[in-house]
Design goal:
The structure holds two protein chains of two kinds. Chain A is mainly β. Chain A has strands at residues 5-7, 10-13, 19-24, 31-37, 44-50, 53-57, 64-68, 74-78, 87-94, 103-104, 108-112. In chain A, strand 4 (31-37) and strand 5 form a beta hairpin. Classes of the chains: A mainly beta, B mainly beta. The interface between A and B is medium-sized, with 30 and 26 residues.
């Protein structure tokens, strides 16, 4: 079982550019959530996808968007990058609405210069 | 507002001594509570969870946590710390309403276990 996999592991982008991060959930999981972890802080919930629809959204601007594919994998897109978007982006997968724990990927370290 | 507080930025403990990492929460209803650990340049690893039932829950690597509803706390404990336990620990809560499993995290507590 490969667990949750994210790509790329590191990324450097310039202000104003756009970025796409990818996530493959753990086998058997159908729900994907994205979190932003700024340096020295706890992860902040961005949004969650289930059955290819955004089900919950945190306090993030519309520049942050996502997608879930039929195979449950997911993308996080960020447009018009700001320096403040520099962070570790974590993907977590879980099984539906069950009260199960979320499994996290190793994250994508995004640096905006 | 829903929130999780980890009042200690860092906890220092000698190897072999018991450790406690504190967590309190503010969430309406009966929340689900979790502890995760993060090693450098890694994602979060699940340690344990409280959903319902016994207030003392046991998890991975010898960790346990005690749920106290009246104090809205969920402190992480281990009877005998190891140097390899040194890492960043996050408490998280999932509100019981809403049907989906968004997690609200605390700011984290760095645990340093000294030989």
């Amino acid at each position: 079982d490969a667990g949750v996999t994210q790509s790329p592991t590191h990324l450097i982008k310039t202000r104003g550019q756009q970025v796409t991060l990818r996530c493959s959930p753990k086998s058997g999981h159908d729900t994907v959530s994205w979190y932003q972890q700024a340096l020295g802080q706890g992860p902040q919930f961005i949004f969650q996808y289930y059955e290819e629809e955004e089900r919950q959204r945190g306090n993030f601007p519309d520049r942050f968007s996502g997608h879930q594919f039929p195979n449950y994998s997911s993308e996080l897109n960020v447009n018009a990058l700001l320096l403040g978007d520099s962070a570790l982006y974590l993907c977590a997968s879980s099984r539906g609405r069950a009260n199960t724990e979320a499994f996290f990927g190793q994250g994508t370290r995004l640096t905006v210069v | 507002a829903q929130s999780v507080a980890q009042p200690e930025d860092q906890v220092n403990v000698a190897e072999g001594n018991p450790l406690t990492v504190k967590c309190t929460y503010s969430v309406s209803g009966n929340p689900y509570l979790f502890w995760y650990v993060q090693y450098p340049n890694r994602g979060l690893q699940f340690l344990l969870k409280y959903i319902t039932g016994d207030n003392l829950v046991k998890g991975s690597y010898g960790f346990e946590a005690e749920f106290n509803k009246s104090q809205t706390s969920f402190h992480l404990k281990k009877p005998s710390a190891l140097v390899s336990d040194s890492a960043l620990y996050f408490c998280a809560v999932r509100p019981s309403s809403g049907g989906y499993n968004k997690l609200i995290f605390g700011a984290g507590t760095r645990l340093a276990v000294h030989p």
